[in-house]
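Researcher: Go.
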Amino acid sequence: MQITQNHHDVVMREHTPNAESNRGDWMRGSRAEALGGGAARWLVSREPHPSVAREAWLRDEPAIIRAGIHFDAVRIPAEHVHHLAGSDGRDAVERAFARVGIETAVIADLSRRWYYALVPPRTTEAEHPTYLGVPAPHRADPPGTHWLLSPPDGEDALCDPASVRKLVAS
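Model: Structure:
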């Protein structure tokens, strides 16, 4: 299976294998409060115009953020993940990620049939700048692009590249 990246990729992340019991833990508070919190602050901290990203998030739209600064993104076909999970249900998909040690920093773009695992910068071999549609940190559910697993609030909360390779090779 080939991992690809391009300027249409969307990357985000989440947090735990048990969405029903933990999803609310990282989503507490109002939308405005969430956009000033750790994940939002970190995701836009090196953007030249962070207010543009925050405005997109306030409209519940993905913000276009350049990869390669805070994170890179690995695009994984939803069909592959659903096959490994035995289902396209959220709980089964979260368990599939958790089985390989991925518990955070995954974005779901199911209208395009992709998941994006956020990994440390310079992990992938992107040949040109890649921009990602990143959902607002509070966007944990469809419709639209959303965090399958909690958004990262620092580099230590990104996916381990070895775990992503393991998932893709499964």
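Model: Confidence is low (pLDDT under 50) at residues 1-28.
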